[in-house]
Structure formats: C-alpha cells, structure tokens
C-alpha cells in the first residue's frame, strides 16, 4: 500500500506535513502498519506549484526516509498547493519513472492501490490511451496508465467524470478477462487551482482516505497547538492516513466518494461510468 497527501491553502513549507507532524508522511513510510509486510521504501515524490505555469516535480527511487535531497527541498519550498507520495510497488520496477506524482501539463496525479492482474490486461488498457497522450507515459505502473486513461476520457474538462470513466473502462476490460475485483484506488490530483480526490474499489475493502476538518474548528478544539495558528482558514489536507492523533481533526472520506477542495469542500458520490471516444466529457 502506498501513501500520499495533498495540501491546499496559504503557502507553507511541505516539510511541515512531510516531516514535522507526529505521524508524518515520511514517518509512515518507514513504520508501516501491522498488516503490511513491507514499508513504503520503493521511492518518493513531491509535486508543487510555484512561479511557472506548470507544476514542478521531484521524484526519487530512494526510500523517502533516507532521501536528503527531499528533506532539503521540502524545507526551501513555500507553496499553497502540493501533492506528495511514498511508494510500495505492486510488481513494477523500482525506478524514478515509476514514482509519483505523475504530471501532464498543469496536472499532477497520485494513486494508492492497484489494478489486479495488471500484466494480463496492460496491453489492452495501453491501446486505449489517446495517441496524443501516449508519449507522456514514461514508466510501467498501473497508476500512470490510469492517469492517462482518465485524461483520455476527459479529465481536463471534467476531472471527476474522467476518473469515473477510467474506472468503468478498467472494470469492463477486467471483466472480459475474468478478473474479479480489479480496481483498488484512492486518487489525488490537482490542476493548480483545486485539489481533487476519490476513494473507490471494486471489492468490499477500500484503502483509507481522510480529509482535515476546517482549520477554524480545529483551532477552537486545540488552541494550544501552535502549528495550527499560521494556517489559513481555508487550508485542507487530504491524506491516506491521519498525520496526527487529534480527535475531531479528521473526517474519513466514505468509500465510493469524491472530493473537490477549493475555498470550500464539496463531496460527491463516485461511481464508475461508461466511456466514450477520446476527449469525451461527462
């Protein structure tokens, strides 16, 4: 199981969430949960928005907890929107091009989960990617392919709908191949203006996803927490697992749900959908 987090709000140093909290993303990467056989040591990445029109990207195939470059970078950057990821591979090689986030134009994408029996349907899924997008695929993961399928099915104009059509296409392709419960996913993505997230699986068990409650309410619950005083009132964090054990701070995102986080938080039902031709919109 991979882990990821997304932040949107007033600019902060990513270090504050990657390293400084009680159960930071980097701490989670090396102290894995009891039901996990291995830690998240197959690479790491950070994508953020700064001075350019498209996001900046750092990726490394080194374990996150030992990557000195990531620590330096996370302390020097100040940004109001970023995605970070620690990887536990599910069969594809440990290499930089397989590390998240994945980028296309102004978009960043991270994923926790898998496509079951991916190797047996990989070719069919690849052939469905819009040829215009195909050259942007650099690695061999199911995650990067899911991103480009969602782009093919209209993500840029309809982000949640593009994800739903991607999920529907993966499930229908897997069904024809006799694969049961093919899709497990929590997804985070952003276009530099909004933060999007989805939690879904084809089977009864779905990887966890949480979103922070509004900062003003959290400050009232925990006025002694100095870390919270400089966060903007609209700041939100979306995480695979809570970064700190504070009752009332985290809301679990229900399975089969999607979020759009701007100044306000919107939650929608998420359900795989039928798909149409390249560049379609919902």
UniProtKB/TrEMBL annotation:
It comes from the Bacteria. The keyword Transcription regulation does not apply. Keywords: Glutamine amidotransferase. Transmembrane segments: none annotated. Residues 2-264 form the Glutamine amidotransferase type-2 domain. The keyword Nucleus does not apply. PROSITE patterns: GATASE_TYPE_2. This is Class II glutamine amidotransferase. It comes from Subtercola lobariae. The lineage of its organism: Bacteria, Bacillati, Actinomycetota, Actinomycetes, Micrococcales.
